[in-house]
Write a structure and sequence with these properties.
2 domains; six-stranded antiparallel β-barrel; 2 helices; elongated
């Protein structure tokens, strides 16, 4: 009797194991598709500091407490969920700074989406504050449709929607709420 129970248990275990074995397929394409469809980063960096140079000169220094690399996705991007701090240097070694609470960099378009307490401090004392700002790296152009405050030479400008080049030499304003800057000096959208 004892032999029979042990034999039945053993047979059950064998049948169960064989069922599991034959039901599992090692299909690489399915595994690869699953990894691309899931939102797991292919890399993670903590307390990063990246220095970008051009011809031996420092152009940008990027700092962030956390960087997540999603280059395993069909539309590759890098995410900075705990914020970002950028230092830009021009040809005269003048430093401008950009900070935000969150950032995402899209590799294919070279567009950076900065969100939450976005601030740009220019080397000549200009300051732009907004809740969201897009930076087009290829065209050196920034824009937002959100409320903003821009201070340059102690003259505040408040409005909704602004576009500008990296040096704030070319500025396009959406709607102006308040300005101490003469309006004729500002190019407004029609």
């Amino acid at each position: 009797m004892r032999f029979r129970i042990t034999n039945n248990i053993l047979n059950s275990v064998i049948v169960f194991t064989m069922t599991l074995f034959f039901s599992c397929k090692n299909d690489f394409k399915e595994v690869e598709a699953l990894s691309k469809s899931s939102k797991f980063p292919s890399g993670e960096g903590k307390n990063i500091r990246l220095t970008y140079t051009d011809s031996g000169k420092v152009v940008v220094i990027l700092r962030s407490p956390l960087s997540l690399d999603y280059s395993n996705q069909s539309f590759r991007y890098r995410e900075f969920p705990e914020g970002i701090h950028l230092e830009f240097y021009d040809e005269n070694k003048n430093k401008s700074e950009v900070t935000s609470d969150y950032a995402i960099l899209y590799d294919a378009t070279s567009l950076i989406d900065l969100q939450g307490n976005v601030e740009i401090k220019t080397h000549d004392g200009g300051l732009l504050k907004t809740s969201q700002l897009y930076w087009d790296q290829n065209n050196q152009w920034m824009f937002t449709k959100k409320k903003f405050t821009f201070i340059n030479d102690d003259a505040p400008l408040n409005g909704i929607g602004i576009e500008a080049d990296r040096n704030f030499k070319k500025i396009h304003i959406g709607d102006v709420d308040y300005s101490e800057i003469p309006i004729e000096d500002i190019e407004q959208e029609e």
